[in-house]
Input
Amino acid sequence: MSALKELRGLDREARLLEHVAATMSWDQETYMPEGAVDERAAQQSLLQGLIHERTSSQRVGELLGRWLHDPRAQWPAQGVSRTDGEDLSEVDLAFIREKHRQYRHAVSLPERLVREMAETASRSQNEWVLARKENDFSRFKPWLEKLIILNRETADCLGYSGVRYDALLDQYEPGVSTAEVKDVFASLRKSLVSLVQRISAAEQPDGSFLEQPFPVPQQVTFNEEVMTALGYDLRRGRMDRSAHPFTTTLGSDDVRITTRYDEKLLTSALFSTIHEVGHALYELGVGEELRGTLLAEGTSLGIHESQSRMWENMIGRSKPFWQHWLPRLQQIFPSELKNVDLERFYRAINRVAPSLIRVEADEVTYSLHIIMRFELEQALISGDLSTGDLPGAWREKSRDLLGVVPDTDAQGVLQDVHWSMGAFGYFPTYALGNLYAAQFLNVMERDLPLFRESVAQGNTAPVLDWLRRNIHRYGRVRSAAELVQQITGGPLDPAPFVAYLEKKYGELYRLQGG
Ligand code: ZN
Output
């Protein structure tokens, strides 16, 4: 049997096991009775062991050794050496590259470190929940300190050429460097702060009608109609409810989403559904030839977010979209939306208001929340900022970037779960998603000059088709940087996102000049 064939067989088994594990997690988040927690943890731990065996065993290293001089070393700049008579396609090469990445990651980290990180993160999350509830940062501080030390150690094991943070960022956004993100965010920061200031000085839209109760059963009806109209195929997915909305892939033809409903939050459920549909459409759109392999998923968290945010904000919060959907929403909520016309509705769902909480932030201020976290976590990892000084640094940045200062740490430094999970280098991917999305939108607009007219008629199929052809079908064959380069002809660039916001919000808030 050829090495490639054997490696594909092991990968297939690992993927099947990962999908079994994902099914168990999905069940845990949606329907599992509380009493099943311990047994489920044991099941997951067994599955993770089996997956590890198929992705990181000595045999995998031997097989990779057919193309790589040292499978434990970094991916060679000149690519892999091809063995006699072997004709490797773009997909084969990507497969070997991603197998190597997975293998190297696993064998670079000592078992002791992996175990310590998992145990610390799990206990730290409990402490974080309590610390947030009691508004007591000092309770979380020793855990945060330990997680920072473990992350530095992880970075050192994985290796990096610039700064330590590079290795952490690379886990979520492969191939993107800290220096590149720093540059891009510095320019984004300046533009956004200025735009937010101009918006704050303008006349604010009236969104009061959104604050009344909208009965949940009717919300469900509307969400399900929108979800299927966007092209989410219920023969290959389903929507359930969970405390925190998510998308999960359980197989090539089974990508599920969840949402949450609250009578008082019509738009929250709706836009979170559209967001998750965006993630699901990406995973469902990967090419046939990648099915069942590790290439059959989103190429990076940033590109994944570009898909969810394009659907949620650039399509879902656009005027053409509501030209079609508002009449239907008014049919479902006749008394609630009696006197609301398209203009008023459109302005209300795009209201910009600097706020303390990231997950409630609007499209304009959202990236500022991310830039702030990026700057702080870099300083924590490098040692320039101590955990003791973190709450103060948080308040200062919040004032500089958003113009608001939290009264409590619960509403400030303790609001997000990421650091308590030991995830450093994750936050920037959210803002990168906005930037990629705007870069893609520009090109899509050039290729499909009439796409807004279709959207206004309730037809988003041309958009989905464009995303499938240019992005989805490649799965992980092409990296984020390669996709951006191939689609736009240039590198990551914040200018299209800034231009998109300036245009949309300049009109919406009737800003002068700009
Ligand atoms: Zn998302």
